[in-house]
# Entry
Amino acid sequence: MKTKALAKKSGSHEREYLSADERRARGKALRDKVSRGSQAGWKAKKGRRDPVELICESNAGRIPALIPIRFGRMSASPFAFYRGAAALMAADLATTPTSGLRVQACGDAHLMNFGGFATPERNIIFDINDLDETLPAPFEWDLKRLAASMVIAAQHLQFADSDAARIAIDTAREYRERMADYASMRALDVWYDRIDPQRYEDRSGDEEILKAARKRMTDRIEAQKKKTVPDHLYPKLVTTEGAKPRIKDDPPLIFHPSKELAPGLESGFKEPLAAYRDSLPEHTRTLFDRFHLFDFAIKVVGVGSVGTMCAVMLFMAADDDPLFLQVKEARASVLEPYAGKSLHPNHGQRVIVGQRLMQAASDIFLGWTHGKNGRDYYVRQLRDMKMSALIEDWDERLLRLYGRMCAHALARAHARSGDAATMSGYMGSGRTFDEAIGEFAVEYADQTAADYRQFLRAIRRKRIKAAVESEA
# Structure
């Protein structure tokens, strides 16, 4: 009783102290309001928005000339379409039953937004690596997007329907079991936890596939370590012909913008860079001050981000000492119309705060700013040993293992901002929740296939324009 009384007097922590068992019981009681079985399946609600119309609305504010490239990339496959249609799924998730248990959500937790990257100590960890859409929201929204992406990837690889369903269920089970682990851990241990891809311990018992996966990861990590910025990225992106180093143009994917497209260009982005510097921790400012801006260019990235103001900035501390910073426009999260507005005045700040909440370790150059064009931005290093999944030659067992790794990373991220014990209590210890999420994933994959066909019809009928890029 004395502990509870002290907890009630703790200022910003003014809330009743509950043990882990009491919080689990609260989570279990939530099933009376929103059963785990109600999370199963997907059926479009009457009056569901035209998917093409909703996707086109998400083009507002994008660079018009780049929108056909976005649509061309989305047209490549149902999997590519799904990657670019986060806004569409956010609208659909908002119509499904929700547990009411909120976390700092990724907002776009498909399997390609997980992967390896370097910590400030230059170790490689596995984690969520794209948080443009992050916002507090119900925990199951992220899990449903991840599970559905596993089914769509399995279909892309032409696996049997039964295998695709099992992968989705396995992904949900891993999330549930890892959350139960985090519920029993000390709070600091949850925050210190990291996933080492080279030493990953999988509980499936399939040592053969785990050994093969570790070897793949080790080989990729060793290859990435050789691709240093001075020796690999710099000569690939920069020409040294002329008075000073300059980023190579490769239109329409890399190009130097006009003054109209990039206000502040003439002044060297003095004010936005000063604001970015102020967003950095004080010790990082000392390092940043060693570098000087040499060039700035628009650089098209990803699928969903195509058309937004994404750029790369080249800084130099010395002739052989470059730094590339990626500047990405931060727009309102696709979750905002359904989960509530961000508490942060700058959407770049929203992304960075969410990233630091969800990731076990983050880039030291993470920061945010506001441009003269009225847009918000966040900043990070370009390709700092970042590795995403290359799934084209995967078999069913490898995709299944990868789904479990993603689910583990997602559970760890959610446990940092949410109440792991309450979420664990809601999900329980049986297969009811796993199978519900698996059923949703399979049926939403069917919805995605139907939306993709409608999207292709819109391209064929010239309702929208798509530009398919050359593979050369």
About this structure: The mean pLDDT is 92. The chain has two domains: 2-225+386-460, 228-381. DSSP finds 18 helices and 13 strands in the chain.
